[in-house]
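Lab notebook, bench 4. Still working through the backlog of constructs that have no structural model yet. Next entry is a single chain of 262 residues. Request: give me the structure tokens for it.
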Amino acid sequence: MADTEESIDSMDCNNFYYKNELCYNMMGILQSSKCKNCAFVFYSNEVEYSENCHNLTSAIGCNAIRKGQYMILNKEYSKEDFYKIKEKIDEQMKKEGTYGQFFPPALAPFGFNETLGYDYYPITKMEAMKKGFKWQDQATGTYGKETIKEKGMPQTIAEVTDDILNQVLVCKDCKKNFRITKSELDFYKRMNLPLPRKDFECRHQDRMKKRNPRKLWHRSCMCELKNHLHGTQKCKNEFETSYSPDRPEIVYCETCYQQEVY
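Model written out:
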């Protein structure tokens, strides 16, 4: 479990917030019990396969309910009918092998490459499809509507007038159209920065590529400085780091690093 306080007897839960119990496979839950395979369910009891529900008791497959009980697909039933139908649903899901699993990727409204998952765990389209994820071949947006070409863009911010706010620009990478807002323009002028040649998403991907991958390599300290604790011998400390062995940086253990910078 992660991100929780005073929760008990639960498993495989994230953003589990506060005082939950007997829950499984949950994300974003608050003061709920006996819930399974849900996202963002608050103050609820015995809820399964539901999302964004509050004050809900005994339900399956519900969305955006604020108060209710004995509900299936947002429809309320008598207690007796609810458990009869739920039993049939459970049996069918068990036959299909889907019972007990979190919401499958096939239900995602976005392609994997449009999500934060892609930012942190980039994979190819083929790899994503094998895992059951969707893939967006072309980013949503407008194309070919630019009123100013890339070659016609001002080279310095000093050349830019407020008329740029009325123009439609084009990304040099993905060719998607984008615009500059007043607050952006004010920032670029204040910082003396040229206008961007890429749209927000491509700039975001450029920033993400500068981060180390979410992977750890087992490395040895590369420090050979004689004035450190290891003296004339090479430091023998080993550790895990996000700097891969083929990178050019010198990687120190924590002790040697602190001795060097402080």
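Notes after review: Residues 189 and 230 are 51 Å apart (CA to CA). The longest helix spans residues 79-96. Flag for follow-up if needed.
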